[in-house]
Amino acid sequence: MKLIPLLAPVALNEDLPDRKLTRGQIGTVVEHLEREGEHALLVEFSDEHGQTYAMADIHPSQLIVLHRKTEAA
Q: Is residue 9 a contact partner of residue 16, using CB atoms and an 8 Å limit?
């Protein structure tokens, strides 16, 4: 599994209703977490003014990394 780097922009690829987050919401990875061999990412979700409205630990499979420049596949 390729590690998603800190400060990477990511988007949810599924709804997380228990956290009031929906598919497509964009956030930033702020920490790598590990507990009992399980990996997760702490993701900060902010509005257009930079105000944080949610922080959630999310499994990497629930995220897609966003790219601002063209990269070869």
A: no
Instruction: State pLDDT tens for residues 36-49.
Output: 889 999 999 999 99
For the four alpha carbons of 63, 64, 66 and 67, in that order, the dihedral sign comes to positive
Query: Within the chain, what is the greatest distance between any pair of CA atoms?
Result: 37
